[in-house]
Give the backbone structure.
Amino acid sequence: MDCRRIADQVYNLADAGTSDSLTPLVKEALEVIDCCLDTHGPDNVSLSFNGGKDCTVLLHLYAGALARRLQPSESMKPIHAIYIPVPSPFAELEHFIDQAMESYNLDLFSCRPSAPQVESVSTPIPRQNGKDYVSAPAPVGKAKGGEGMRQALQTYKDHFPHITAILIGTRRTDPHGAKLSHRNMTDNGWPAFERVNPIINWSYGDVWSFLRRLSVPYCRLYDEGYTSLGSTFNTFPNPALLMCSPPSPSTEIQTPLTASSVITPSAVLAHVMANTHSEPESPEGDPMSPTGVLSSYISKTHTKPNGVAPDSVTGHARKSIIVDTKTKCNGNPVSRYLPAYELKDGNLERSGRASIQPQTTHDQ
């Protein structure tokens, strides 16, 4: 990447004028980044990077902010960054991270927690009456608290004690993001870092407008219908982006699953599960709930790293059984999913994330 060109690109966008909806957001983000660099100094600031769309936006902005400070004869230094992997990352995601390391010259420290983390995602969960569903943040897996994250940050602090601030791509609509400001210190008992959130006020649509407008490379999973990336066993293409072939094979016209009745994450999930998956029976013979069906589906179609799944009791690796599921929509073969940037309702961003998945010793 030509970071000087990126600097011209992002700062010109920040000064584009009031007619451009991205201008105030980019300007605000760059001001937050510049203020952080003024406070801590470029050598003492790091970037939290996991290959997701939000931190990809932040990486591009940060590279531009750093290049803006260079003297004419000065070269870009490697960009300090930390990567804290989820327990079972997508291979495509880690491939993109490797590409970003090379493209942006990232000095990326990978720190896999020794303790399990908690991954909080907003997913449809049943109300008490068992009929209606609400969308609420819920921890994924059996771990309690953020001990894995705390340990990872402590390891990073031990290796790089001079790092005093970390840039994070958190947005207001993310789980636990509602009450954050642009700059927050870590809690008592955690390694001392200032957490800086330059894009906290961006929406899902703003993120994709920026990435596509500036032709910023991003992980290819987003082109396959994924809208929020986590572990392989709790992440799947967003049901709201499902494309179906029409009943007649003579036409190639495709219609997205965006009927006017599909207005909530729970409605989307229930509709897709009802039309694309057989409902297995529970041991008692009763039909499973949509979340139960989803759990069963994920357990059959998602694998752990290297194609193995940990045993729920012993933790020993065992071979996964790959089930050839010919997914159908309204009785017809599914053609594909729309890319993530086609999602019009940002409230559905995490409809492709599950709060229930096969119980393993490595759940996040």
About this structure: Residues 120-145, 247-265, 275-326, 356-364 have pLDDT under 50 and may be disordered. The domain at 3-219 is CATH 3.40.50.620 (Rossmann fold). DSSP finds eight helices and 14 strands in the chain. Helices lie at 3-14, 22-40, 53-68, 91-104, 147-159, 204-213, 265-276, 290-301.
